Amino acid sequence: MINKFVLTGILFCLLLPCAYGLSEKMNLNYYIDHLNDDNLTRIEAITHIGDLGDVRGTDALIISLRSDGDWRVRSAAARTLGKINDKNAVEPLIYSLSSDTNEYVRSDAAWALGALNSTKAIGPLTEALKDVDPSVRSSAAYALGKFGAGREALLNSLNDEDANVRLAANWSLERVNQTSSSE
């Protein structure tokens, strides 16, 4: 038998979001509709799309990644595409990794490609180890470690001038060695 106070509490928790319009805010379309607002609202909307984890938001995120004029929005879109784990984002992320003018966007694209775990990204990530920005090189090295790939390029990165790149390359080489020893 259910205690009436427990039942009341359960009903309260189920109905409260509707009473305050919170269920609308959990709707993917609510956030997609805000991708044309001011910069900070767009970033917040992108973050919430990632929290929902709904792959139906991929197309809107790809548009933000490719065309938003604010690097912070493109960067948030890249991270979120990695978080929601839709393989349709691989090609746009590869393009951003190799072509975006902002190092934060390229770095987040590298991270997202590692999260997506698509072998299509191995070549572009290996190439990104030569990027002028150390944060991009570091993110690319970590991403390659998630694949257990890029051994030769990672060995070269152990001599990078930046300590974070060397650290990422070392961590990734440990993963590569674990992968090759288990095969």
- Which bin fits the share of residues in helices? over 70%
Beta-strand percent range: under 5%
Low-confidence stretches: 5-22
Mean of residue pLDDT?
88
Radius of gyration: 20 Å
* Shape, per Cα inertia axes: elongated
Largest sheet: none
| DSSP summary: helix tally | 12
Structural class: mainly alpha
Description:
The structure is a single chain. By secondary structure, this protein is mainly α. Helix content is 74%, strand content 0%. The protein has twelve helices and no strands. It has helices at residues 4-19, 22-25, 28-32, 39-52, 58-67, 71-84, 90-99, 103-116, 122-128, 134-147, 151-157, 163-182. The longest helix has 20 residues, at 163-182. The protein is elongated, with a radius of gyration of 20 Å. The N and C termini lie far apart (55 Å). Mean pLDDT is 88; it is low at 5-22.
Question: Main attributes?
Answer:
mainly alpha
How is this structure best summarized?
The chain is mainly alpha-helical. It has helices at residues 4-19, 22-25, 28-32, 39-52, 58-67, 71-84, 90-99, 103-116, 122-128, 134-147, 151-157, 163-182.
